[in-house]
Amino acid sequence: MGGRCAVTGPIVVIGAGLAGAAAAWRLAAQGREVVLVEAVAPAHVGGSSHGSARIFRHAYPDPFWVDLTVRALDGWHELEAAIGRSVLTTTGGLDFGPRHDLPAVAAAMAACGVGSELLPPQAARERWPHLAVDGPVLHHTEAGVIDAAVAVEAMVAEAQRHGARLLLDRVVAVEVAFDGATVTLEQAGPLSASTAVVAAGAWLPEIAPRLPAAIADRLPPLVVTQQQVFHFPFPEPPARPEDWPVFIHQGEHMVYSLPGGRDAGGAGFKIAEHDAGILTTASTRDGVVDPASRARVVDLVRRLLPAVDPSPYAETTCLYTSTPTEDFVIDRVGPVVIASPCSGHGAKFAPLIGDLIAAAVAGDEPIPRFRLR
């Protein structure tokens, strides 16, 4: 949090999920010396950045977030140009449900130059006959599906192309030294850094006690939950990506759905409750699907997608790390940058998160909403 810093020497980035990989890519592309430390493997299945299906969308009721999605989309296009392949498949996005404030979402997008179309239920059913909607539907064209695993692999590869090193090791401690930070690793031992970037995802609450008290005491409450994800078969494979758009349904729970990509054999779509996770930790999660969540999702599929076989052919769990406001944390204290772009909606922002972390490393003032307490 201080002024601009003249940083020389290695920057150690802890965590090779979407946030850490993006930070390593952006920093290495600036010519900085970067060491990316990952305990297991980039985008491993135990974290929050694995698999081939994460939602990209502009549809938020707050222009603050819409503006960030617009900036992030530029970053996704930049990554695709760098690697010569697609990371984001555009499907369009739908928002609907009895508790969804569609006028606020449309207004927020319009304020940021993002167009949308409000459709009456009959018109929506004619355009997307698999959906039995009974209320208005807000559609915008630029939403889609991010291949998270390909994105992480690509950003790590781009970072390495620019000279970054990848170390597979576990962090024992992060300490402030007189000339930077010391990151102590389980196998490699102490590693001197001009700046340490802690982007450990769901492991951040467990790493926090190993951070200097001046940092750990300023973290907001971070709640880790085990989320339930279900895969259902397409009634028939969509002919075009836009025939099966991503959607957000706001009813008793907020439910999201998107084509499943390669996940679970790539034979259908995934659907899950955003706001009904079970408290856990990254180290103690049991991976057992909550039967109550399954029952609610199956009931919604029966009502909303009547042509779909309402028996999930696959199910799994993943992790959220959430702040009380669902805002992110990207801030710097001395030689340590904390990055927790989380709360179940951070994946879409990954390239921009890399930019924001790089700015924090350079000593730029953080976005006020992303400050530590």
TrEMBL record:
<feature type="domain" description="FAD dependent oxidoreductase">
    <location>
        <begin position="11"/>
        <end position="359"/>
    </location>
</feature>
<dbReference type="GO" id="GO:0008115">
    <property type="term" value="F:sarcosine oxidase activity"/>
</dbReference>
<protein>
    <submittedName>
        <fullName>FAD-dependent oxidoreductase</fullName>
    </submittedName>
</protein>
<dbReference type="InterPro" id="IPR045170">
    <property type="entry name" value="MTOX"/>
</dbReference>
<keyword id="KW-0274">FAD</keyword>
<dbReference type="InterPro" id="IPR006076">
    <property type="entry name" value="FAD-dep_OxRdtase"/>
</dbReference>
<dbReference type="InterPro" id="IPR036188">
    <property type="entry name" value="FAD/NAD-bd_sf"/>
</dbReference>
<dbReference type="GO" id="GO:0050660">
    <property type="term" value="F:flavin adenine dinucleotide binding"/>
</dbReference>
<keyword id="KW-0285">Flavoprotein</keyword>
<dbReference type="Pfam" id="PF01266">
    <property type="entry name" value="DAO"/>
</dbReference>
<keyword id="KW-0560">Oxidoreductase</keyword>
